[in-house]
Structure formats: C-alpha cells, structure tokens
Amino acid sequence: MIQQQSPPPPYLFLEDLLPKTGWGLYYKFMLAMACANSVVNAAAFMSLFYAIPLSTCENLVTCGILWGVHISFLLGKSCGGYSSNCLSDIYGRKRMITYSLLTIFVTTFTAAFAYNYYMIIVAAFFLGSGLDNNSCTVRIHLAEILPKHKRGFYLAVCDVFWTVGYLLMSVFAVTMQRPTHVEHRAVDMKLATWRVILALSGGFSLVLACCSALLEESPRYFLHAKKEFLAVLALKQFYAINRSTYGNSFEVKDQDLRYFVQDYGLSPMPEEVGGLNSVKGAFKLCCRGTKLSLSYPFRSSTVTLMLVRIPLVVFSSVNLNVLLAKLLSQHHVTSGLGVIYLDYITNVTMCSSFEDNKTLYGNFFVLAINIIVGQIIMLWFLDKAGRRLCLVIPMVVSGVFLVALDFVKDNMIRMIMSSFIIIGVASATTNFSVINIELFPTVIRGTANGVTNFFATILTIFILRFFHLFADWVFMVAGTMLIVASLVANCVDDLKKQPMVE
C-alpha cells in the first residue's frame, strides 16, 4: 500500500506571507511608533550627560560622582540590558516595549527630583537598562513584520530619528546653560534647568508608553509561544487595517504557520506559573537562551558580532563626536570624563555657557550632523550593496582616517577627516544593528543582542576609566581596532533581501 505524502506547505517563510497583508495604515503606525521611540530614547540618553554638568552650577560635584553616574549607566546598559532583552524573548516584544518606556519615565523623573547624587546613580542604572531594552525590542518588533526587500531601509530610518532626538536634546540643553532664577510670591525660587531637562525627556516616554497599547504582539513571538491561532488573528488584523477590508477574507490557517519558527528546545514558560517559580523559570530560560547563542549553529555569528561591536561601542559616534569636537577646539582631553561629558573642560567646574565655548559647540554640532549623513547613506545602500560590504567599507575608512589624524596639524583638514570618521562609524553602527537582528532566530533574538552588547559595554567602562593612560595615541588605538574589526566583519553572513534566520 502506497503511503500518501502530506502536501508541501504553501509558504516556506513568514516573509512570503507578510506581503499579502499589504503595506498600509498599521505598518506605517508601527514605523511611526518605532521612530518616536528612537527620538525619545536619544533624548533620555543625552539628558543625563547634559543635566549632570549643569547641576554643577549649583552643587559641588566630585570626579568620583561623575564616574559613578556614568559607570552605573553603562552597567545598566550591559547587565540590565542583557536581562531585559532576554525577557523580551520570554514574555513578548509588546510587553517589554511598554515596560521599558515606563522605566525610562520613572528613572528620569527620579533623577530630576533627586535630593542627592546617590539617587541619581541608582536611577542611572535603571535608565541604562530601560534605554537598551527599548532600543533593542522596538527594532526587533519592527523587523519581525517588515518585508525582506525593505527591512534594512526601515530599520535604518529608526537610527536617523535617533540622531534627530540626539540633536534636538543637544540644542535644547545648550540653550538652557544657566539656571534661571524666578521670583514667585515674594519668595526667591530656583528653577534648576538640569532638572527640567531630565523631567522633560522622561515625560515623552510616558506618552509613548500609553500609545504602545495600540501595538499588536509580533506574530513570530506567538508562533514561538505555540499560539498559532493568535498569530493567525494578528495577521488577519494587519490585513484588515492595511487593506481596509474584512480580516476573514485573508486565507491562512494555523497549520500554515506551524513550522515558520523553531523553538530549539526552548519551550515557552506556562502562563499559569507565578511567584517565585516564575522568576526561576525566567532565569533558566535566560541561561538556556544564552547557552544557545554561544552554541552551534549560532556560536560563530555571536563571537563575530561580539568582536565587531567592541570598537563600535567603545568609540561610538557619540563618543567620537565629543572627542573630535574637543580636538578641533584645542581642548586637550586627559580623562575619560572629557569624552563622556561635552561640558567637562576643567576639573574645577563644568558650569559653562554657550557664549564661553562657541567654538566647541560649533564643532560639536557640525560633526553631529555627519551622523545623520552616514545613516542616510545607509538608507540607500543597505538593501542594495549588501550588509557585509556596507559594514566593512565604513569601518576601514574610519579606521584609516583615525590613524592618519595624529599626523595632520591643519585644523581644516582635521575637520574634513573627522567628518568622514563620524560618517563611517555612524554607517557601520546602523548596519550592525540590522545584522544583529537578522542573524538570530526569534527564540533568542533579544538574548543575542544582549550578549553581543554585554562585553563591549563592560570593556567601554575600563577603557574610558583609564583613558588618561594613552590619551596621546588614542586615535591610533581606535583606528587600529576599527580596521581589525573590519577584517573580522568579512565573516558576517549577508542576508540582504533574504528571510531572517529562524
């Protein structure tokens, strides 16, 4: 008797099915939410490093406190970000987007109304965790529904809006350099501008947290959680909203989606588990997810991306923006604090105004605009030239110019070289964030991002803390690290216009 074979599935990948839902109102709303999250994320990120220098106009702040705030922030990004990114694989993208936005709101307001710097140091840890989780989860949530032909373009758009938020917060902070004194009911009151900066940046995140309730959970997460019927329902809702028609006319069945997402033995935690058992279960799943990301077949991708990410985090476009602006303004940086805080000019005080440092701020904003230039370049080439090429070339260009920077004394030539350095690093960082999402399956997509970011951020703490040990040849070190990382980047898989790894 001949055994009847089951018919092949109508779709091999979820990317084959998603275009049928159309590109309409809901997907545009998701993109708008992702861009708004990026703006708020950047504003909250920069608010801390503009607010602390301004607070020295009223209070005496030691270098130890300045280091404490930044180290706490980076530890939050590495340890807290890793933990919360793991939880996004366990509890879903939508839930963690809301929680991360609420975390940003609570921590910025806590810092704004703090009565001592130790509260700010604690708030900085949770702020770093919330920012890292929000940035990662929002991009993953968006990438999991994007068409494969435009995935790189739309993810790069989020980075452009991040830089818009970075510039807006910088302009706002510069215009509020001095604390304002007001008189109200015959009582002198001091409106501390640094508190206003923190509170304002956090207030927008609360609005977005409310708007995030309108988002649908990722269909890929539903498939990982073995809830095929909810994935079908989500796709039908996408179809109905995008095409302004009845969702029931979208023909898809539960069994059509069953094999899109592999669980790799990481079964989701039952919803009825609560209390201490829930914490234990989440911890075990985090450990197993981390082990999977460091095991075959993902070990090579994880290690490669970890090595490539180190120079992109240590010498990020934000750090280089401050460092190069001070180089062009003849401000000699002798401490890592000079890279972290734009207003850190002397060890006595950071309370400065725009009028006192017009050259420094002018160079800073000129170089900052180049970050957007690099990201716009990626908008056009990321889905055309491919991921690997768009990662290697910018890193090589930036590395070469950084090495050559020590041998150039003319300030105009240095400005041109610095612009190319910023453009290259910004382009490579945008490309890297796309690759880091594409090369891992749904079950560990957030976890892998946390793993690759963890070691790079920890290393950043040590390098910046001991920056004064090699201040004279830091550009040589940065350039060498970028060139070596570009060689490692040649091993990265290129998924241009291809389905993401599942």
Automatic annotation (TrEMBL):
<feature type="transmembrane region" description="Helical">
    <location>
        <begin position="97"/>
        <end position="127"/>
    </location>
</feature>
<feature type="transmembrane region" description="Helical">
    <location>
        <begin position="303"/>
        <end position="324"/>
    </location>
</feature>
<dbReference type="InterPro" id="IPR036259">
    <property type="entry name" value="MFS_trans_sf"/>
</dbReference>
<feature type="domain" description="Major facilitator superfamily (MFS) profile">
    <location>
        <begin position="30"/>
        <end position="497"/>
    </location>
</feature>
<dbReference type="InterPro" id="IPR020846">
    <property type="entry name" value="MFS_dom"/>
</dbReference>
<keyword id="KW-0472">Membrane</keyword>
<keyword id="KW-0813">Transport</keyword>
<dbReference type="Pfam" id="PF00083">
    <property type="entry name" value="Sugar_tr"/>
</dbReference>
<feature type="transmembrane region" description="Helical">
    <location>
        <begin position="473"/>
        <end position="492"/>
    </location>
</feature>
<keyword id="KW-0812">Transmembrane</keyword>
<feature type="transmembrane region" description="Helical">
    <location>
        <begin position="153"/>
        <end position="175"/>
    </location>
</feature>
<feature type="transmembrane region" description="Helical">
    <location>
        <begin position="336"/>
        <end position="355"/>
    </location>
</feature>
<dbReference type="GO" id="GO:0016020">
    <property type="term" value="C:membrane"/>
</dbReference>
<comment type="similarity">
    <text>Belongs to the major facilitator superfamily.</text>
</comment>
<protein>
    <recommendedName>
        <fullName>Major facilitator superfamily (MFS) profile domain-containing protein</fullName>
    </recommendedName>
</protein>
<feature type="transmembrane region" description="Helical">
    <location>
        <begin position="29"/>
        <end position="53"/>
    </location>
</feature>
<feature type="transmembrane region" description="Helical">
    <location>
        <begin position="413"/>
        <end position="435"/>
    </location>
</feature>
<dbReference type="InterPro" id="IPR005828">
    <property type="entry name" value="MFS_sugar_transport-like"/>
</dbReference>
<keyword id="KW-1133">Transmembrane helix</keyword>
<feature type="transmembrane region" description="Helical">
    <location>
        <begin position="361"/>
        <end position="382"/>
    </location>
</feature>
<feature type="transmembrane region" description="Helical">
    <location>
        <begin position="196"/>
        <end position="215"/>
    </location>
</feature>
<feature type="transmembrane region" description="Helical">
    <location>
        <begin position="447"/>
        <end position="467"/>
    </location>
</feature>
<dbReference type="GO" id="GO:0022857">
    <property type="term" value="F:transmembrane transporter activity"/>
</dbReference>
<feature type="transmembrane region" description="Helical">
    <location>
        <begin position="389"/>
        <end position="407"/>
    </location>
</feature>
